[in-house]
Write a sequence for this structure.
């Protein structure tokens, strides 16, 4: 499974984009969004396990990042900074969801399950199975899996973003992949 | 190279992180071992399906997201403390106004006396339940806060998200519940006092 080669901005380019964005250049911030949009979504999704909620949390994270761009001390590490903001936003959203689920459960109702959206948006049984399987991964494995397979980042980039070692990323990635394959073998992949 | 060893290299092979010797040994093993070859094929297929299934269906796109942020739609959300104050303040103010009006109106319509006492007793029972529900609605403070923040964010945005709308509706329901519970229970207190 080869990922399509993707041109990534290197740290000096990222730092230059941040500086230009701070100076009010629209295209520079757009370039940052382009570079990290999927990463932000992946981080939020790894926390929330729900695509729609992840989109909202990621967007909130972007807005917060935009407002606080001037406070970023190391522009080259914009990605890691954004990942922390988005993760915090996603954790807040998850706490809100739990609180709502608790309050609603007391009057006999409940939040729609994340899986409810799947039936409408996924055509294949295997796709539904796969989404559930990814959502069932432990968050720390799901995060690296998404960054590698959805965002297409290399282990070194993921390590820099998440503050992990490359070896640690590779270990998590290997375990995530093995978990998915084991589950497929156990359950037949929704067939 | 054993089957176990070969399978432990699958992840590294996917990331093109194997040494030439490992890659050579693995390729030779896969050529000779149908079980491992089948597993490798399954490994690649399952991960491709999982990656596709986990990918976002649609993202706003760089241009749109950047435009929203620049255009000021990324306004500061209403501070949580202010949201909580509003969430409590609005129902309390409504309660103060509503309970007085309702108590006056109902007392005039059905004067309290020996013959109307059963009616008022039943009303009181209903109000007691309403009070319990109203009290429970305190648990919905989070929804009220969510509703207020959502409405705040709505300024200038063409449409709210489905989750935001759901939160707003729940918040509205919770607000009405609190409103009805507190207001009508105050009416019960007025009867008791009278």
């Amino acid at each position: 499974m080869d990922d399509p080669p993707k041109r990534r901005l290197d740290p000096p380019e990222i730092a230059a984009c941040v500086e230009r964005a701070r100076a009010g250049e629209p295209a520079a911030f757009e370039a940052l969004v382009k570079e990290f949009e999927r990463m932000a979504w992946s981080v939020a999704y790894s926390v929330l396990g729900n695509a729609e909620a992840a989109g909202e949390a990621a967007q909130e994270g972007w807005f917060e990042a935009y407002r606080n761009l001037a406070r970023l001390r190391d522009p080259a590490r914009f990605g890691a900074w954004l990942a922390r903001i988005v993760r915090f936003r996603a954790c807040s959203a998850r706490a809100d969801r739990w609180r709502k689920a608790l309050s609603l459960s007391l009057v006999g109702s409940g939040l729609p399950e994340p899986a409810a959206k799947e039936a409408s948006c996924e055509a294949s049984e295997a796709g539904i199975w796969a989404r559930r399987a990814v959502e069932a991964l432990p968050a720390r494995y799901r995060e690296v899996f998404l960054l590698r397979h959805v965002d297409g980042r290399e282990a070194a980039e993921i390590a820099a973003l998440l503050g992990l070692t490359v070896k640690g990323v590779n270990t998590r990635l290997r375990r995530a992949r093995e978990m998915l394959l084991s589950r497929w073998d156990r359950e037949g992949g929704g067939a | 190279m054993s089957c176990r060893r070969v399978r432990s290299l699958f992840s590294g092979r996917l990331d093109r992180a194997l040494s030439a010797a490992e890659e050579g040994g693995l390729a030779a093993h896969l050529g000779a071992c149908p079980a491992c070859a089948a597993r490798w094929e399954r490994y690649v297929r399952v991960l491709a399906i999982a990656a596709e299934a986990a990918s976002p269906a649609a993202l706003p796109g760089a241009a749109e997201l950047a435009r929203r942020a620049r255009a000021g739609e990324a306004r500061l959300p209403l501070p949580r403390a202010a949201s909580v104050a509003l969430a409590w303040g609005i129902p309390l103010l409504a309660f103060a106004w509503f309970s007085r009006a309702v108590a006056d109106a109902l007392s005039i319509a059905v004067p309290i006396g020996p013959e109307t006492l059963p009616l008022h007793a039943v009303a009181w029972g209903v109000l007691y339940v309403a009070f319990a529900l109203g009290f429970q609605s305190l648990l919905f403070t989070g929804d009220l806060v969510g509703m207020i923040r959502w409405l705040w964010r709505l300024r200038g945005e063409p449409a709210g998200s489905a989750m935001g709308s759901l939160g707003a509706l729940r918040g509205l329901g919770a607000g009405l519940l609190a409103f009805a519970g507190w207001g009508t229970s105050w009416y019960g207190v007025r009867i008791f006092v009278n």
About this structure: Residues 6 and 88 of chain B are 63 Å apart (CA to CA). Chain B has a mean pLDDT of 69. Chain B touches chain A through 48 residues (CB under 8 Å). The longest helix of chain B spans residues 162-193.
